[in-house]
Design brief:
The chain is α/β, with parallel strands linked by helices. It has a 7-stranded parallel sheet, with helices on both faces. Helix 1 packs parallel to helix 2, helix 4 runs parallel beside helix 5 and helix 6 crosses helix 7. The longest helix has 29 residues. It is globular.
């Protein structure tokens, strides 16, 4: 299927590795002009080379922290009029409620709610004027099925998803959609860090920790980032103009609810 986004300009935040890199790769493969972002310039250059090797597309790298106003300004200066915005950022630290501080809560809200909303606010007006825009927020399946040590991530990302639902009512008539992707366990560095915590807490080997994570869902495995990237590309497609305000959970069927 031709997704109809050849030549479209796409910003993919936090895309030097993991799910962000997978999304950037999928969009580049579909012919979009892609701006990738990360805090580590060397890792970002490596990511750009990997995308070029896999897709033949050239991408633009912007080394910046999207959690800061200065970083967002640098990214928008490089691509001031994107047609596609994929919001992503590293998650806050795991921790049970009694171990969290006020600073922890403020950092989580800034990085995983306020920063993506600031980027949306900066680009949604020109998207609406051009009658095309696709905004995808990468959040977490934990928002639907929280665990006790992920309260920072769940609370900040739930706030982002609530505001995304509200703002899409105003923009979908202009062919600007806003959707959320909720990843479960995917083979990323983030998952590796959670596995390491399980190893320390429970005395598990790495293989046991990964097997235990995969066994939580009926698929019986951990997802591959490319599967996630392809889902993101479809939500950014011309064909997805009637999909807005939705939360797509990619977790191998683990979510047990109907809605």
């Amino acid at each position: 299927m031709d997704l109809g986004i050849k030549g479209r300009k796409a910003i993919v935040c936090a895309s030097s590795r993991g799910l962000g890199l997978a999304c950037a790769t999928a969009l580049a493969r579909e012919g979009a002009q892609v701006w990738i972002n990360g805090r580590d310039a060397a890792r970002l250059d490596d990511a750009a080379a990997r995308i070029e090797e896999q897709t033949g597309a050239r991408v633009t790298s912007v080394a910046a922290d999207v959690g800061s106003a200065e970083g967002r300004a640098a990214l928008l200066a490089a691509c001031p009029d994107p047609d596609i915005l994929v919001n992503n950022n590293h998650g806050p630290r795991p921790g049970h409620f009694d171990s969290l501080t006020q600073d922890d809560f403020l950092a989580a809200l800034e990085g995983n709610m306020l920063a993506p909303l600031a980027l949306i606010q900066a680009v949604i007006g020109t998207m609406r004027a051009r009658k095309f825009g696709r905004i995808v927020n990468i959040t977490s399946a934990q928002v639907r099925m929280p665990t006790a040590n992920m309260g920072l991530s769940v609370s900040a990302r739930a706030g982002l998803m609530a505001m995304a639902k509200v703002l899409q009512f105003d923009c979908v008539a202009d062919n600007v959609t806003v959707n959320n992707l909720l990843p479960g366990p995917f083979d990323t560095d983030r998952l590796a860090s959670l596995a390491e915590q399980m190893m320390a807490d429970r005395g598990l080997t790495r293989e046991q920790a990964y097997a235990g994570i995969g066994a939580r869902g009926p698929a019986g495995r951990i997802g591959q980032p490319s599967e996630f990237g392809d889902a993101c590309a479809y939500l950014c497609s011309a064909q997805a103009g009637f999909i807005s305000g939705q939360n797509l959970t990619l977790d191998g069927g683990a979510y047990a609810g109907l809605f």
